[in-house]
Amino acid sequence: MVSLATSPSIHLLEHTFNLTTAEALVPALLLFWLFTLPFYYAIRNSVLPNYIFALFFWVWLSLALGVECRVELSNDSTVIDVPQDMLAPYHLFFNSTPVVYTNTAFILGLAMYGFYEAVLAQRPALLLRALICGVLRMTIGTLTRLPTPKDYVAVAGDWPPPPSASCSGFIFNPSGHVVASVIVSLALRRRGKRGAAWLVDFGCVLQSLRLIATRGHYTVDVITAVLLAVVVDQNLPIDSELMARKSVKKDK
Description:
The chain contains eleven helices and no strands. The protein has helices at about 1-15, 20-45, 50-70, 80-85, 90-95, 95-120, 125-145, 175-190, 195-215, 220-235, 240-250.
């Protein structure tokens, strides 16, 4: 699945241009930005139907995964993370198969809600936020790379997957899991669905504890993810503003 998702960007940069992984990383990031900017403009101005946005989002996600899987893990130094040490006794529990698959189901639920909002409900604001959070996350994680936490072990059924030829690394900071959870929670609150939002928040807290306990993320990754999601959410147009712009455009 990972190999299929990353194949477009891998083929373009590593095969077509005959670049090594290290050489392809920065061009991939630039390509990612070049694709993101017109995509953002198209969503913001309702230029294309939402099902086309969903298709473009898959291509965008493919480029994102292509960049992320090329960010090599490092063991050059050790980072002191107090919460990781405090949660160390729960490492095996949070890495158990039931917990891993429950967390995966939670993330898939967030993705399904995003699809519902963008395609079925015709409300693209959540997709807009995911787009900008994603490109900022890829930029931060590519330009500043943290060393692999001590005792980190990737498990099947989780993201990131165990290292393979198609995906040898991933981005620690900020946490993509937490970013997704927070922007969905804020979107639910904006629609008055506070009960569902609190449920997502609860899942996000458990997920964050798991990410730190299993050393899949540093504590700072979780904190910056929350801050990134809130800042992006508060500074992008909401659905009513996007619909108003679309209405004005039709009147013209």
